[in-house]
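Colleagues,

For the teaching module next term, I've prepared a clean inverse folding example: a structure given as tokens, and then the sequence designed for it. I'd like students to try predicting residues themselves before seeing the answer, so please don't circulate the second half yet.
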């Protein structure tokens, strides 16, 4: 019985430390500090079981601090498994979702490459079952409460977490752009983590710089962009025709109706207050769309009466273990908002799995282009009702 409890406690121990790492990566501290503490967490997570096993073999008892820790770990198992069961089985698709579909995107890296080195990837990208290059198109149709009929059918392509590091060759990103442009969206929204390595700033001209949309291509930065001279990155993106929404908003007109687009790069880049001020000054009655790198800004979006919030950062968990799903999700809420659609009135939030990753490994969680179509809710008149 003691051995069984110890095994359960070991699982709870893993849940505790993974949960700590998830939440550590949701706070706005410097990346090198997060890296050091993360390494410390993994080292502690690996060392503690050996110390517990040694103590148990020496004393054949689970008491004192050891007993308290084991009880905490057992509670972590119970709470985590109950939460996962709820999230995976009992939580229903939000009522605002009218349609959801997924399909593979055919990419041809040899066709896209200008030079042979653009098809060269890190060896991990070629590992069996690795889905880092298996791009998908995910389609969503949402019923947006209060959406003007003139905006019915407005399409938004969301692209997030490009992570231009050089570990995935440039040809792949050329193909992402080609596939997105073929969709001919009304808007393209890029929700951060674009470039990790300064050397890849030169890639923007013939990758992101080639994106097109009827009403503009908009971007914000994420935490990984701080590694790649973020001020210079903004300049390069704007020189290539992309519109910066970091900490600000912009009002455009589509089919005669106002649409406000704003950006929230918190907690890593200050400017949420500027975004709030901009939103307060914008046109009343406009459709309000916010780009936020982290889904943790959902409560903020609700307060700002945002209609649609687009987020990334999680990579969908990047590795999803059946039947548990994602384990790693760098947010304050853990795996609750890893990917998909969430509705917290008045805000609909979409969290994308993203385009790539700084570590080029994905399993059971392919990268995606997300195409979102906003639908006006048709009001039923007395004449439309059946007798």
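(Answer key — instructors only)
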């Amino acid at each position: 019985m003691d051995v069984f409890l110890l095994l359960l406690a070991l699982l709870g121990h893993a849940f505790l430390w993974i949960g700590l790492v998830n939440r550590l990566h949701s706070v706005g501290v410097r990346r090198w500090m997060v890296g050091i503490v993360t390494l410390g967490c993994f080292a502690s997570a690996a060392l503690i079981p050996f110390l517990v096993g040694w103590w148990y073999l020496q004393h054949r008892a689970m008491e004192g601090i050891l007993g308290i820790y084991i009880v905490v770990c057992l509670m972590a198992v119970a709470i985590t498994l109950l939460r996962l069961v709820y999230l995976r089985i009992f939580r229903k698709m939000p009522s605002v979702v009218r349609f959801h579909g997924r399909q593979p995107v055919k990419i041809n890296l040899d066709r896209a490459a200008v030079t042979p080195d653009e098809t060269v990837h890190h060896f991990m990208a070629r590992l069996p079952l690795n889905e880092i290059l298996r791009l998908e198109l995910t389609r969503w149709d949402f019923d947006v409460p209060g959406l003007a009929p003139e905006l019915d059918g407005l399409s938004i392509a969301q692209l997030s977490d490009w992570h231009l590091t050089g570990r995935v060759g440039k040809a792949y990103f050329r193909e992402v752009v080609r596939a997105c442009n073929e969709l001919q969206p009304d808007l393209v929204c890029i929700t951060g983590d674009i470039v990790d390595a300064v050397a890849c700033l030169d890639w923007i001209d013939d990758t992101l710089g080639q994106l097109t949309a009827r009403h503009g291509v908009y971007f914000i930065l994420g935490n990984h962009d701080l590694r790649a001279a973020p001020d210079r990155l903004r300049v390069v993106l704007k020189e290539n025709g992309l519109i910066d929404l970091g900490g600000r908003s912009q009002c455009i007109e589509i089919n005669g109706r106002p649409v406000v687009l704003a950006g929230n790069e918190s907690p890593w880049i200050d400017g949420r207050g500027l975004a709030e001020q901009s939103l307060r000054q914008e046109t009343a009655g406009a459709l309000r769309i916010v780009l936020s790198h982290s889904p943790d800004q959902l409560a903020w979006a609700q307060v700002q009466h945002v209609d649609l919030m687009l987020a990334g950062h999680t990579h969908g968990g990047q590795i999803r273990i059946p039947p548990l799903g994602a384990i790693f999700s760098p947010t304050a809420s853990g795996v609750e908002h890893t990917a998909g659609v969430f509705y917290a009135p008045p805000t609909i939030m979409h969290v994308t799995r993203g385009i790539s990753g700084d570590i080029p490994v994905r399993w059971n969680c392919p990268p995606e282009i997300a195409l979102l179509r906003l639908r006006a809710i048709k009001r039923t008149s007395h004449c439309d009702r059946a007798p």
